[in-house]
Amino acid sequence: MKGLKYAEQLLKLAQDSYPAVDSDSIQVEEVRYYCRLLIELTKQKEKVVKQMIVTAQEEETFQYYISFPGIGAQTAAQLMGELGDITRFDSANQLNAYVGLDLNRYKSGNGGRQDYINKRGNPIARKLLYFAVGNMIRQQHAAPNHIVDYYYRLRQKRPYPKLNKVAMVACMNKTLKCLLSMIKHHTKYRYRYTDSKSTVKI
Question: Which residues are in the Transposase IS116/IS110/IS902 C-terminal domain (predicted)?
Fold first, then answer.
């Protein structure tokens, strides 16, 4: 019955599809309209992105962001826009809370539940960081990256390997911590970068 229902839906959609109607039908005109609109919006987006990158390049911190393997010019400019001047944060914990990556722990007696992030911070910054970490993993052969190393350590940890999303969030947290230290100390990324010698409180 379920298969029959899907088949009926597909037949109905096929009747309204582009090949099933005349070339001068309203459906064809509608498709053309939305195609033109999509092309125009894409051009506007590309123009805004270019302007955003040009503006971000005027700031010293832009060079620190793009020195991080996996963070390109567009992502760097977007992160700068969403995070602002991160040197205003005294610690990485404050920055994580601003983005919404701080953990919410619940315990009641001997019981409890799995930790999860608060998500009360900046949702756009979280998405950008998630994208950036994913990009680091995809481009791992282009340049050494300690965030990628950390990701695989978590995924292969025994006896309890971390799930992909849990490992990704941990890497997002570590990336923010590293960026804060780099920017506060005017240091570009280098492999195995740690802030253990810095004065940034973590």
Answer: 67-140
